């Protein structure tokens, strides 16, 4: 009897697993197709210094302009390709595309550092440095010091030592690093210590709720203190209102990003946004 049950369980499990694999395979096929049809594009979201009103960066955020479903955010496709070779290819494309876009803006006189999200798996890939060098070589008028990689702390960081070495090699090329979504991973503090990133991004979930949730406020405060102790720059994401901004300034965090400042926008809207930003009165007066 038990054996029978066991067998049933195994059978059922296999069946579900099979369906999941087929689904995953299908998604992967669609995404690969979309990529070869050039349906991916980058949106950009500004980062500002609330004290000086200066624009300190533009973060590239990937989108899929799906022919039938419209504009899709990353969570609709990245999870399906996370561990596939396509993620490596797409990751390389994002870096190249962001650099080319930066160069275009630079030629208009708009020189603003760009940030690109890189997954830990991407960083851990054996060809990462080589491919990065190739991209930099092919865009040789680009100054690597104007590029920042945002790394997600994640359970898929298998080998922190190796990641630390890759970060080191990138730094030798002049690239800067930021620890994204800080505080949400399962070993934030150990990453902070082992990964020599220039800055820390306080996860938006803490920032968004900090105005009425005292626990979140305490976390935000602690991360700001922590970043100072460790000599890192700190930036808050999820700054949805000026009140968030004012609180953060009081707590000693000047850098911010969020819907209250600007939503991610298509590249074509960026020059106009910069112009408006520079000609308007300061965001926090
Ligand atoms: P992230 O890097 O932490 O990016 C911030 C996300 O929060 C973005 O979502 C942005 O639109 C959203 N956001 C910004 N300000 C606010 C705010 O004030 N309130 C709220 N509620 N949300 C805000 P998006 O564009 O959907 O990206 C989601 C995540 O996907 C990113 O989180 C990043 O981890 C990943 N991602 C995006 N582009 C890439 C990419 O090119 N490569 C990789 N590997 N991951 C990417
Ligand atoms: Mg990011
Ligand atoms: Mg983030
Ligand atoms: Mg995030």
TrEMBL record:
The keyword Coiled coil applies. The keyword DNA damage does not apply. Keywords: Coiled coil. Signal peptide: none annotated. Residues 24-278 form the EAL domain. It comes from Shewanella metallivivens. This is EAL domain-containing protein.
